[in-house]
């Protein structure tokens, strides 16, 4: 179907509106750090409420242009479209990777600093093989991974060490204490107990991720990347029992698989899972009635058996809905695509801003409240795109492992204890949840129940 305006007849934002999207959406997200967060910038974005402006900006465009998709006024060589309609979001996610490829240009430039052959930035047969491998290792169809009981043991050991430390520090728990514990859990779950104290590996990856934040603007750390992959290979060869490395050693591979380019994603993506857990703890501390539900769930289950803790998982999902750690979901069209309003050119970067959908107060009654029931009765929001883990065939294959480990961590921290936010006014159940919650300066006073 030939159409004759700038981009077929899809509406196109003016230059001023495009610059406003850059200022309200791209700048704050790039400043916070797309691949690794910059704590100072997170603090500034929280204080200025910039994430709310990004949602408002897209709402205004939606009110002016209708469902879109809305082409931005970018150079012809880099077409870019905003998805403004829930059905369009579902279409893009469901029709991944053809014609909406996960291997989007900006993402490729960011990830090539440490995992250039990762599934997310691959296409065709290579992507298919890497996706298959990740689904197999992470058992993406199972709510509880086969190694769940072992992961539960790791969480129990590390949480109990953390809580002893907290007691020695007059009941104070802050981000730096939690982060050290979380990183140990992550290294043990992904690579095995011998990696528990390999902080150097985490630091190497952090440096590579920092370069990833700058995408094509950073020349890269080639030698460091080689050294990091070499160190990772040692763990993968060892394939320690009880860790994902053992699953990797067992999984079938071929020349396309490139396991050592998939595993950095496991390590790196567990990082936002830690932030999410800490924010979920803050949500619970601020909502005593929901904490009571969590405590009931904890007493009803044997945590050693890695139960599926539905309520705590819903709290983690709420933390991710309110403050998604992957706010920008990007796709790139592999061919021209047809929409009700016109044609989108091939090689367009298609942007889904998760908070725009997650916090749409025009349609969702509880958009800005902490409402775990949203996930316990998913029928309530119908097909509305709730996409903290993306969706469709590109959905995060690690989501169940994440929900398992984070809910078990919350259960162990909450068991027999009470948490008060310091200061207690940081979040209030009587007020809308803030556009961003800076995890780096969260602190709790922990007491026995
Ligand atoms: C809070 C934690 C996490 C969140 C919010 C999250 C979210 C996401 C999202 C949104 C994507 C799709 C990105 C896109 O399409 O551009 C993705 C992809 C992926 N995630 Fe996660 N993730 C998390 C943790 C993990 C963990 C811990 C693992 C592994 C242990 C993992 C493994 C993967 C893999 C392998 C992909 C690539 C999938 C593909 O393209 O085939 N994720 N994740």
From TrEMBL:
Pfam families: p450 (PF00067). This is Cytochrome P450. Transmembrane segments: none annotated. It comes from Billgrantia bachuensis.
